[in-house]
Write a structure and sequence with these properties.
With 46 residues, this protein is an all-alpha fold. It contains one helix and no strands. It has one domain. The relative contact order is 0.13.
């Protein structure tokens, strides 16, 4: 899967967007690995 983010550079720096991306990828990986787990219980969101 590939994607991109559009964001306002005066509100977010590149490092912040990279960290948000890393967290999103972690949540998606957890969700795929354990599809029966509610999102609220995934470690990446805890």
């Amino acid at each position: 899967m590939t994607g991109w983010f559009a964001y306002r550079k005066h509100l977010f720096d590149h490092a912040t967007v990279e960290e948000l991306t890393r967290r999103l990828v972690a949540v998606l990986a957890d969700a795929v690995a354990r599809p029966d787990t509610p999102l609220s219980e995934l470690p990446a969101l805890a």
